[in-house]
């Protein structure tokens, strides 16, 4: 005589934790301690920083100012701009990371520039609708998609 199982029996069996419930062990991720970065000794001055789609740094070399983007090389020093931050730039020079801080006379204007940038962003957000706003799909399209998704594509 053969016994048949119905769906309820199978469901009850699958819900049993015969060997205990699996609990993955979370291993703590050890964060590396930040390495102190020395201020660069190159004869350059960071005059300004511009943020946007492509951030840039205004760097003065030999009395001439030029805008550099991340990844570009400073003209006469063969130093590469690795990272552009709010008040400093990280350079890779001779295989080492060095910090180029904003010149003292330029630091006082950073706060004013940041406030202006925030107000400009606020104006832009009000003027332009959000690109990720939900789109209403017509009822007929939704019903057709529910019946046969391949038909739409």
UniProtKB/TrEMBL annotation:
Gene Ontology, cellular component aspect: plasma membrane
Keyword DNA damage recorded: no
Principal cellular location given in the protein's record: membrane
Keywords: Cell inner membrane, Cell membrane, Membrane, Protein transport, Transmembrane, Transmembrane helix, Transport
Subcellular location: Cell inner membrane
BP GO annotations: protein transport
Top-level taxon of origin: Bacteria
Record-linked Pfam families: T2SSC
Gene3D superfamilies: 2.30.30.830
Domain Type II secretion system protein GspC N-terminal: 3-102
Coiled-coil zones: none
Cited InterPro entries: T2SS_GspC_N
Protein name: General secretion pathway protein C
Source organism: Escherichia coli ISC7
């Amino acid at each position: 005589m053969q016994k048949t199982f119905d769906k309820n029996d199978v469901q009850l069996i699958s819900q049993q934790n015969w060997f205990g419930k699996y609990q993955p062990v979370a291993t703590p991720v050890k964060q590396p301690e930040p390495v102190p970065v020395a201020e660069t000794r190159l004869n350059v001055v960071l005059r300004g920083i511009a943020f946007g789609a492509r951030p840039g740094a205004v760097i003065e070399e030999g009395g001439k100012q030029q805008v550099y983007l991340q990844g570009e090389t400073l003209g006469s020093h063969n130093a590469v701009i690795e990272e552009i931050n709010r008040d400093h730039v990280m350079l890779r020079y001779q295989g080492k990371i060095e910090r180029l801080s904003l010149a003292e006379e330029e630091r006082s204007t950073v706060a004013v520039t940041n406030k202006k940038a925030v107000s400009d962003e606020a104006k832009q957000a009000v003027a332009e609708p959000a690109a990720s706003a939900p789109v209403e799909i017509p009822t007929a399209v939704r019903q057709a998609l529910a019946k046969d998704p391949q038909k739409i594509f």
